[in-house]
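Moderator note: this is an archived Q&A kept for reference. The question asked for a predicted structure of one protein chain; the sequence and the answer are reproduced below.
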Amino acid sequence: MTRSENIYLVGLMGAGKTTIGRQLARALSVPFYDSDKAIEERTGVDIPTIFEFEGEEGFRDREQKMIEQLTQMDGIVLATGGGAILREENRRLLKENGFIVYLQCSVERILERTRRDTQRPLLQTDNPRDRIENLFEQREPLYLSCADFKVDTGVMQSKEVVSYILEEYNSLNR
């Protein structure tokens, strides 16, 4: 697997980027990275703490640096943070260095998957549904603008999603 064969997963929180990414990497026998986990490992603190002390902008600066580093690697599967595509530089790096899969998922399914998750700073609000709907409205055009492929993770089991992605990926790399 070469750099051009890197697979980058984008999509809203709760769409399944980490779950699908791990399975995809296992199927391809390549390393898996999660940009949020890599940031936590580098800083020694969790994402909510970074948001608390540096705000979203401080976190996005750290995220951009991490995306720069991870997109220089060859033969990986990368699950990006849901907001990584907000910065044009991140979208450019992802597009130039790999195959981008947009994991689309309905607001309902995302609410269902994230309702008990206290580690998502953007959902620590009185109305998580409104927040997710707003994030979806804001980010979906960006996901679509950089994605090479889109799959709805709300209607399939993760193994099916992985098979579907591999089928598309392999058809492009023949």
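Archived answer notes: The chain has one domain: 3-172.
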